Structure formats: structure tokens, C-alpha cells
Request: fold
Amino acid sequence: MCTNFTPTQQAPWVKDRLGVTLPAEYPLESYPGFPAPIVVKSHQTARVACGLARFGLIPAWAKDDKIARHTYNARSETAAHKPSYRTAWRQRQYALVLVDNFYEPSYESGKAVRWKIELASREPFGIACLWDRWTNPDSGELVVSFSMLTVNADEHPVMRQFHKPADEKRTPVILPPPSFDAWLSADTDQASELMTWATMPELRAMPSPRK
Reply:
């Protein structure tokens, strides 16, 4: 499960690949509850936009935002049916969160050691997400939030080494740039077909302890 990542600050790359401008300010690292830049596409106008959204999806029906502590990753196999995600999935609220890398724990030493995962090319990349809107009943604030979609990674050459030995291995769905528009424009069947690590760009990983 991905709980920590580095949102990209590489504005020229984002402009070139997606034609959008990054928000002015956001944290250098993101954890559940933190804002990060996501890209969405209107199914009515085909307009692509980039804005900040909170990491940890809050469904429209939630009474408060506490659910976001458990909804930062969504299993692609069940997203269409789980109450927290099914409306976003069926309404095709698909997004990309733009990152330079993300972090996972390795237990090869017997203890949890933070490792950084990035593309072998070291370019930024997009992770497939679901997004939703929630209105805070106390303040009236409109909150946009998102969850990363994940797939099984038991056989992935890099991602199979992370998390506890007995746990299922998972990876966020990393999309290559040629698939960005296909994901943002997808219907539910097309979105399901993109939920695979088989077409993900090559990854590399290295220890990255917190300073």
C-alpha cells in the first residue's frame, strides 16, 4: 500500500505531456490527508485540468473526513463495488496523480526499511486514481480527494519485494504517457483493461531512509 509519495514539481514535463499547469504550492512529500496535484478530464467538454486534491478519498455520503485514513489506496479488483469507490468508478471520475517517486517498506533485513521507487528513466509519472467531491457538513467546504488504484504485484520484478513477507504484494497502477488520455477518457470497461502492471514503465528501487 502506498502511503507516501513525492508529487512532481517538474512543470515543463507536465505542460508538455498533458498541456496543463501545476498548482503554485503544495508539500514536497505527500501522506494521507495531504494535498497533491491531480489531472482530470471533463467528459462533457474534454477539457483537461490540474488542481490540488486531498490524498485519501472521501465519498460524497461520508459524515466526516475520518474515512480518508483508510481510502488512500483502492483495490482495482473491487473498486467498482466497494461503497467508498463505486460511485466514482461508475461516474468515470478517473484522474492521474503526478509524482516523481513513491515509498514502500522492505522487510528483507527483518525490519521495515523505507525504499524509494521511481522510473528507471527517472522521469515523472502518473498513477491511476479515482477522485470524488465531499462537502464538509460543518463548514460547507468543498473537498476534492483521491485514491490511488492498485493491482496485485506478486510477480512484478520490483514491487514483489515490498511489505511483510506474508502479505500480498501490491503496486499502484503506473501509466505510461501514451496511456494518459486513454485513462482520463476511459469508460468503465476500458478502465478495467488498464488496471495491470504488464504495461507499466520499468521501475527501479533503492533504500531511502528518512533523514
User: Anything to note?
Assistant: The two ends are 22 Å apart (CA to CA). Residues 4-207 form a domain with the hypothetical protein yedk fold fold (CATH 3.90.1680.10). The first helix runs from residue 11 to 18. The helical segments are 11-18, 86-90, 180-184, 188-194.
